[in-house]
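A protein record pairs a chain with a discrete description of its three-dimensional fold. The following entry can be read in just this way:
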Amino acid sequence: MIEEFRYNGEDFKVVKKYEGWRIGVLRNSERFSASNHIWERHLLTDEVFVLLSGAAVLYAKNDEGKIEKVEMKPCIIYNIPKNVWHHIIVADEKTTVLVIENSDTSQDNTEKILP
């Protein structure tokens, strides 16, 4: 009756889709390093981040360019509302972040700003 889902690789992987939800695990990779600041915003959905282990910094930016920075704390839910530019930096290989978003979040409804 109890299902288990694990992911110990690098980068981001969706580990469970259920009805309208998608749950993923984000881990250390070049994509989430301090040298790679890819800003993105989801046009149709919020996105939730929960630090499970390690260290990560979450950034949000409004349309005027004001940036908010949060050094994530374990087991706190951080919500990025739809249409808010954001990116996350994973500090080390021991970091694991739980990511929850709508299952229809895709490149078709996400905008990106490359570094």
User: Anything to note?
Assistant: The two ends are 45 Å apart (CA to CA). Residues 26 and 94 are 11 Å apart (CA to CA).
